[in-house]
């Protein structure tokens, strides 16, 4: 059983699996292919990733893989919290270049589903934050691309002083959106 909520760009969803608490703690089905299918979401996830960030204020992203290794992502947090951001890169989309963001946390037990065609990034809101996510294709370094997290054209409110953010060398050098070739096409439907 899960709750599903569409964000302002409707193909980006918040997923909230049930959590069954008892005296021992809780139990939760954090991923159930059939439950997602029953909500109209059919994605074959093939790889699970785990990212630990020791510092609050760590930025990862904005990342995406280009075809034929493009990835949908289902992201959750088992310790701490993040501001998660998805930027629409689908050429022809009414929301091209726009983004949605959501706080994803261990406390709220929510997940964000980022479909193919979006750049994905996150900011840790607490130290020692652990992010787990499923991806729908394998990592391919040659297809791994990015866009600059603080590109002024994106106008993302990261809620952080840009000079104190911890950003990898790779992500400091990502291109701006205006310099990216368009690789994803909007299919005219808000399906993942
Ligand atoms: C993403 C990835 C990285 N790696 C390796 C490459 C490198 O040596 C090391 C760290 O990689 P990165 O610096 O790209 O890690 P990171 O900045 O955490 O990258 C991630 O960011 C978030 C926002 C995403 O959306 C992910 O898809 C992924 O791109 O891990 C893998 O082996 N498999 C993978 O799937």
UniProtKB/TrEMBL annotation:
GO molecular function: dTDP-4-dehydrorhamnose 3,5-epimerase activity
UniProt KW Membrane keyword: no
Active site per UniProt: 63 (proton acceptor), 133 (proton donor)
Leading EC class: isomerase
GO cellular component entries: cytosol
Pathway: Carbohydrate biosynthesis; dTDP-L-rhamnose biosynthesis
Gene3D superfamilies recorded: Jelly Rolls
KW Isomerase (keyword) present: yes
Domain of life: Bacteria
InterPro entries for the chain: RmlC-like (IPR000888), RmlC-like_jellyroll (IPR014710), RmlC_Cupin_sf (IPR011051)
EC number(s) from the headed UniProt entry: 5.1.3.13
Catalytic activity, as annotated: dTDP-4-dehydro-6-deoxy-alpha-D-glucose = dTDP-4-dehydro-beta-L-rhamnose
Cross-referenced PANTHER family: DTDP-6-DEOXY-D-GLUCOSE-3,5 EPIMERASE, THYMIDINE DIPHOSPHO-4-KETO-RHAMNOSE 3,5-EPIMERASE
Job description of the protein: Catalyzes the epimerization of the C3' and C5'positions of dTDP-6-deoxy-D-xylo-4-hexulose, forming dTDP-6-deoxy-L-lyxo-4-hexulose.
Subunit structure: Homodimer.
Family: Belongs to the dTDP-4-dehydrorhamnose 3,5-epimerase family.
Name used for this protein in its record: dTDP-4-dehydrorhamnose 3,5-epimerase
